[in-house]
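Input record (Table S2, row 228):
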Amino acid sequence: MIDPSPVLTIDGPSGAGKGTVSRIVAARLGWHYLDSGALYRAVGVAAGWANLDVSDAASLVRCAFDTRVEFVDRAENGLRVLVNEVDATEELRLETTGALASAIAAIPEVRLALKERQRSFRRPPGLVADGRDMGTVIFPDAPYKVFLTASAEERAGRRHNQLMEKGVSVIFDDLLREIMARDARDAQRAVAPLRPAEDAVLVDTTGIGIEEVVERVLGLLPVSHRNQ
Ligand code: DC
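Output record (2'-deoxycytidine-5'-monophosphate complex):
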């Protein structure tokens, strides 16, 4: 049997730095990158465009099957996400979209609808998969698994700084409350809750810079992968 391409899963709560770390690690390894949260966010955005109700599970499941999502690298504009051919990159990053994605992601059939799509990202020479259930449900056989955490205060602080840099003024306590509510919803849902895989390595990023986190994660892989 041919060995499947290696996968490095990076799971963890929102704001732990998964996106940034995963992108850098994937670029260093020359591997593909799956931002699974963007798929749930894209379904949320498409559901909003179609005026679907968050309580209408059947329509949301259909929407999860039907929504086309493409990740396009536009050199000068960075990585863009097209939802049904429309560039929705900015809308995807909104806090409101994250909260909506978190609510939609609690519907078991929505998760099922996106399962094979996520697995299709596994291609040579390898994949870095970022999400909540990459190591537990989507790629349980992944040889490398990381669970990235940071205190809720640190995560809210990072988000606060990002928004301030963009000129968006927000109250820190509101952000902290939103982050804790999203953590609770993601961790307490019945299907694929946020939790570390038994064989995941826990990396706490509280007080640690991105570069050091990247080095720690890369350090978990054999040198043969790192030299590709
Ligand atoms: O990683 P993110 O913030 O872009 O994810 C948005 C929401 O999508 C998150 O709050 C929960 C859901 N999600 C999920 O349930 N499973 C994943 N693998 C990724 C995201």
